[in-house]
Amino acid sequence: MDTLVLDVPQHSKRPFPNDDSLAQGASSSIVRGPSPYENVLYEQISCLVGAQVRSKIQRIEAGVMNLLRSCLESEGGSSTSIISGHVDHHQSLSSEDKGWGCGWRNIQMMSSHLLRQRPETREVLFGGCGFVPDIPSLQRWLEIAWDKGFDAVGARHFDSKIYGVKKWIGTSECVTLLRSFGVRARIVDFDSTESSSLQGKSGKRVCGPMDKYLIKTNPLPRSSSLELSQEDAENMRGQQVLVDWVWNYFSSKRADVLHNSKNVIISDKTPLYFQHQGHSRTIVGIQKQKGNRGSQDRYNLLVLDPGHRTADLERSLTTKKGWPRLLKRGVHTLRKPQYQLCYVDPGIANSEETEQLKTIDSILIRF
């Protein structure tokens, strides 16, 4: 799969998610032409499709996910890992975006998967160009998403200007950008703060298709002086909710299995944009290690971090030395009170659904 060469068209055949997007609201008996504003927007999109620049990355010849699969298969013990099919690693560069660009790099990693694994998304994403754009191009696409009416709250926060700005972005901007192409991107909030309530960002409770995958875990026993402190035990129990959600996301029966070896499954699920205070990363899979003698199963998130050098990842995965330190994150490492995940449902939204996707809501899970 990693040797597939993408054909790059010279121009976009479908700069909008749907051919009728400029005629939304027209009745069956009255057909209106595009407004002057819509003509300007269309022209901006056409220009950007031709002017956008491919993101430059250090290519891993064998493919980072193929190397990760090999490392996971070589591990001893009783474990099961489920990973996404294809993801390219995009690292932050000191000369370009070190310290502020992690969000954009994670959008690029998610996009590398969508362009390779989902033909229907490749047709519309970034105007159908077939490649992952660089950060300045992505910033232009986000401004266009705001101009099209996506995430009015976020647009006001940034004053509708993000091009050339060295500011952090988060899950909302990732979802806004993807939804502007008709991609069904969703947000899940995991929150342990007292100020949170069972409401989404729009002020109402939002239910989604992943709610049923929330597993209620049994309380951990009260700690003694030789065990975890009560606060640490409470935190780990809460973070386990997030890990359970991720496990059930990747292991969902609705997911197609692309490869199945002794202890590694390749799923067609998209990677997850993983946001917390101060940083974001990309979850490309999860590992479950069977507990011994009645002890609980242990889970490790499998994470690509834009803060890591691609050369270091390739070396550690190729030699099978030191790679767990770079890619594995256990429950005990999840110490933040709030996390956000972005995932993508299959298919492309039609015009009516695209209008609904302009409001950025989230599923809220308290722990």
UniProtKB/TrEMBL annotation:
Pfam family, one: Peptidase_C78
Gene Ontology molecular function terms on file: ubiquitin-like protein peptidase activity
Record's protein name: UFSP1/2/DUB catalytic domain-containing protein
Top-level taxon in the UniProt lineage: Eukaryota
Annotated region (Disordered), positions in chain: 1-29
Database matches in InterPro entries: UFSP1/2_DUB_cat (IPR012462)
Record key words, sorted: Hydrolase
Domain named UFSP1/2/DUB catalytic: residues: 83-342
